[in-house]
C-alpha cells in the first residue's frame, strides 16, 4: 500500500525490509528510519511514550481514540487511504446457520462496553459487518486490486 502511495505521488524513498513491524517501530522511535505505515495498536506504546508521532490515519473514518489525528484524505493524501480490516473467515461451504451464529456472537462481544473500549483505545474502528458479503470486504478487494494495478501487478490465474 505504501509503495503504491509513493508511486502515485511520484515520491522516492528507500525501502527497508523488516521481518516484523515491532522492529520497524523501534527503528522509527530511535530515528534509524523516518517513516512507517502500520497498525496503531502496535505503535500505541511508543506513541504514548512520545517516541513516535502519528501523522495521519489511513482509514476513511476517524478512530474514536484518535480524534485529533487527521485521516490521510484530510491530510491531503487520498492515495494513502486504506481501511485495515480484521476478519474471521471460515471454510467454503460453511453452513449459513453456523456462519450467522458466529457473526451474531462477534457482534454481541464487540458491543460489550469493556471490549469496545479496549478495541477503541487501540485505534480500531468497530464495524463487525455482516456475512457473507460484507461491503467492507468488497471495498478492500477493490482497493487491493487498485494497488496491484498501480504497482504493475497482475492477479494470478
What does it look like?
With 157 residues, this protein is mainly α. The protein is 42% helix and 0% strand. The protein starts with a helix and ends in a 7-residue tail after the last helix.
Key structural traits:
single chain, 157 residues, mainly alpha, 6 helices
List the helices and strands and how they pair.
Layout: H1 2-8, H2 21-29, H3 40-48, H4 96-111, H5 113-121, H6 135-150
Rounded to an integer in angstroms, the radius of gyration calculated over CA atoms is 18 Å
Helix/strand order: HHHHHH
Report the count of strand segments.
0
Helix content: 40-55%
> What spatial form do the alpha-carbon principal axes imply?
globular
Percent of residues in beta strands? under 5%
Stretches where pLDDT is under 50 for at least 5 consecutive residues are none
Main sheet specs? none
* Overall pLDDT score: 88
Give me a quick take on this structure.
With 157 residues, this protein is mostly helical. Helices cover 42% and strands 0% of the residues. It is built from six helices and no strands.
Amino acid at each position: 500500500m505504501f509503495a503504491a502511495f509513493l508511486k502515485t505521488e511520484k515520491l522516492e524513498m528507500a525501502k527497508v525490509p523488516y521481518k516484523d513491524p515491532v522492529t520497524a517501530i523501534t527503528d522509527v522511535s530511535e530515528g534509524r528510519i523516518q517513516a512507517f505505515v502500520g497498525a496503531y495498536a502496535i505503535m500505541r506504546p511508543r506513541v504514548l511514550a512520545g517516541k513516535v508521532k502519528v501523522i495521519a490515519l489511513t482509514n476513511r473514518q476517524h478512530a474514536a481514540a484518535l480524534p485529533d489525528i487527521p485521516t490521510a484524505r484530510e491530510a491531503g493524501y487520498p492515495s494513502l487511504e486504506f481501511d485495515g480490516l480484521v476478519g474471521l473467515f471460515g471454510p467454503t461451504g460453511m453452513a449459513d446457520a453456523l456462519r450467522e451464529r458466529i457473526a451474531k456472537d462477534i457482534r454481541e462481544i464487540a458491543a460489550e462496553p469493556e471490549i469496545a473500549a479496549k478495541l477503541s483505545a487501540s485505534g480500531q474502528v468497530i464495524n463487525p459487518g455482516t456475512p457473507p458479503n460484507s461491503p467492507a470486504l468488497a471495498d478492500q478487494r477493490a482497493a487491493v486490486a487498485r494497488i496491484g494495478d498501480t504497482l504493475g501487478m497482475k492477479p494470478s490465474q
